[in-house]
């Protein structure tokens, strides 16, 4: 029994496409656990890996996740670069969301494919949105501020990061144009 998902292009570099799935993958998750507070989205990344490891039609790859942030918020990241090994999907970055038209200062700015279908089956228990891979340096007094795509169609800062009752994950994949037919 195969499942089919729709994906939207978020980047086309001529040889490779970066795509985002049209829905969140599974239920709500934590961005990190209490023990990983300043280390980045380790829990979300592990959950994403678990939920996409069986996607055999997407090649696995490794990358280094760097906490991207707007330049005007300073030079320090909230977490150190994370080496992510043998994965088929990653989280959307803040920079990608902004390039797609999301504006953190305005509601209803994100393209609708970024905030629709907040759960796999669009159930009653759907998340409020989904995590980006970016921590916020807007509040230097705390490491508990994370950027999300919020259901009200915009980029938003949340503090609900170590509970699994608010946000989910949405896979971003990459594929060679040579393999699309």
- Strand percentage lies at 25-35%
Rounded to the nearest angstrom, the distance between the terminal CA atoms is 22 Å
How many helices in DSSP terms? 2
- Provide the succession of SSEs: EEHEEHEEEEE
Question: How are the strands of the biggest sheet laid out side by side?
Answer: 7-6-5-8
Sheet with most strands = 4 strands, mixed
Principal-axis shape equals globular
Structural class: mainly beta
Total strands: 9
Evaluate the radius of gyration. 15 Å
What would your notes on this structure say?
- The chain has 181 residues and is mainly beta.
- Helix content is 9%, strand content 26%.
- The chain contains two helices and nine strands; from the N terminus they run ββαββαβββββ.
- A four-stranded mixed sheet has the order 7-6-5-8. Strands 1-2-9 form a three-stranded antiparallel sheet, with no helix packed on it.
- The longest helix has 11 residues.
- The protein is globular.
Structure summary:
With 181 residues, the protein is mainly beta. The protein has helices spanning 42-52, 94-99, and strands at residues 7-12, 16-21, 61-65, 82-87, 129-135, 146-150, 154-158, 167-168, 172-176.
List keywords for this structure.
9 strands, 2 helices, 4-stranded mixed sheet, 181 residues, globular, mainly beta, 3-stranded antiparallel sheet
Topology:
Elements: E1 7-12, E2 16-21, H1 42-52, E3 61-65, E4 82-87, H2 94-99, E5 129-135, E6 146-150, E7 154-158, E8 167-168, E9 172-176
Parallel strand pairs: 5-8
Antiparallel strand pairs: 1-2, 2-9, 3-4, 5-6, 6-7
């Amino acid at each position: 029994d195969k499942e089919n998902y729709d994906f939207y292009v978020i980047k086309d570099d001529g040889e490779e496409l970066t795509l985002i799935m049209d829905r969140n993958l599974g239920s709500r998750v934590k961005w990190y656990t209490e023990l990983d507070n300043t280390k980045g989205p380790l829990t979300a990344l592990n959950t994403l890996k678990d939920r996409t490891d069986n996607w055999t039609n997407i090649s696995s790859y490794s990358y280094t996740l760097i906490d991207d942030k707007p330049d005007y918020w300073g030079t320090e990241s909230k977490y150190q670069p994370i080496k992510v090994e043998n994965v088929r999907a990653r989280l959307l970055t803040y920079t990608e969301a902004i390039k797609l038209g999301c504006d953190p200062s305005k509601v209803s700015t994100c393209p609708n494919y970024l905030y629709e279908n907040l759960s796999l089956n669009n159930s009653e228990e759907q998340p409020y949105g989904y995590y980006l891979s970016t921590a916020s340096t807007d509040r230097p007094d705390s490491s508990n501020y994370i950027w999300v795509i919020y259901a009200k169609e915009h980029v938003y800062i949340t503090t609900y990061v170590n509970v699994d009752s608010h946000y989910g994950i949405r896979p971003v994949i990459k594929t060679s144009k040579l393999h699309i037919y």
